[in-house]
Amino acid sequence: MAGLKTIIALSFVLAIGFLLVILSSALWKNYLPLLVVATYVVAPLPNWICGRAANPDDLFESSGSGVIDFGRFLTGFLVVMGIALPVIFAHCAFIVPTAAVMSIIGGLLIYGTIISFTMFFQEQEEF
Description:
The protein has one domain. Helices cover about 75% and strands about 0% of the residues. It has 5 helices and no strands.
């Protein structure tokens, strides 16, 4: 059971993540690193959608494992894209390498906070 301290701590980490991504864009007046926020906000959605679409049943455990695996693959792809996108932008000299590092760290903090929120506040099903 997550309490008020957990909500405050996770909100603080989320604010630091957004601050790093926004500063990586605003300090150098190049707003391409903001694309990282979009990838990390969208990253948990395929896992959630495919988990709902699989509808696991107690009698048939492996009924929707292909759908769940596809959701995990898309989530992993989006997380890796959130890391690779600033690296590619820095390599092509679209953004400064320092902005790429700030964007990656901020994006990982954002994604980690989203996953932590879902883990701490997930409702347990009772039979």
